[in-house]
Amino acid sequence: MKCPFCISLDNKVIDSRLSKDGTVVRRRRECTECQRRFTTHERVEDMLPVVIKKDGNREIFDRGKILSGVQKACSNLPISIDAIEGLVDRVERYFQDRGDKEINCNDIGEVVMSELHQLDGVAYVRFASVYRQFRDLTEFMNEIRELLSKREGKAGKKGQKA
User: Fold this and answer.
1) Span 56-75, mean pLDDT?
2) Exposed/middle/buried for 134, CB within 10 Å: 0-12, 13-18, 19+?
3) CA pair distance 121, 137, nearest whole angstrom
4) Which has the higher per-residue pLDDT, 131 or 97?
5) Do 26 and 17 contact (CB within 8 A), yes or no?
6) Which contiguous run of DSSP H or E holds residue 102?
7) What's the pLDDT at 162?
8) 137 inside domain
9) What are the distances in angstroms from CA 58 to CA 97, 107, 115?
10) How many domains does the chain have?
11) Are residues 29 and 11 in contact, defined by beta-carbon separation less than 8 angstroms?
12) pLDDT at 41 exceeding the cut of 50
């Protein structure tokens, strides 16, 4: 493992911990050259599907792209990195469990939107505005109205149960 500070390959593992769900090992390392510490995350490399892009090109499923998009949608909101990484883990696991060799990029966007819808309304609308490529304010407002009506419907159902 290359040290991110001095690029030395000589380092030692100080501490290892398993994530809550048991899918990732977090390792704390110390570089023997510069003595600085850094963290790495180790996960099993699964066979991931190929993503069919909108233009027809194909590329390997990239968890980092999903993480980046979700982080942008959640920026400046009180959403923890653990919640964001959990969301991305669920999306990745969903497509691994499906077992498809190829998936459409639209399917990924829809699953991410569904997860964001449950996590935070503002993050959901931010992501939707980019993903659905709203062309004008009317499309944006329609999405917000739909979000609000779904939330009001859930609030009404909660009130009926009591």
Assistant:
1) 95
2) middle
3) 17
4) 97
5) yes
6) strand 102-104
7) 43
8) yes
9) 20, 14, 24
10) 2
11) yes
12) yes
How far apart, in Å, are the Cα atoms of 40 and each of 18, 30, 32? Answer: 12, 11, 16
28 and 105 belong to one structural domain:
no
Whether residue 70 is found in the same domain as residue 115 = yes
Higher pLDDT, 44 or 107: 107
Whether residue 14 sits in one domain with residue 53: no
Range of the domain at 36: 1-44
**Interior CA angle at 21 toward 118 and 95, to 5°?**
60
Of 140 and 130, which is predicted with more confidence?
Answer: 130
Q: In which residue are the tokens 């419907």 written?
A: 153
What is the residue type of 41?
Answer: H
Instruction: Give CA–CA dist 67/118, Å, rounded.
Output: 16
pLDDT band at 158 (very low <50, low <70, confident <90, very high): low
Tokens of 119: 């996590």
Tell me if 8 sits within 8 A of 35, measured CB to CB: no
**Do 14 and 74 belong to one domain?**
no
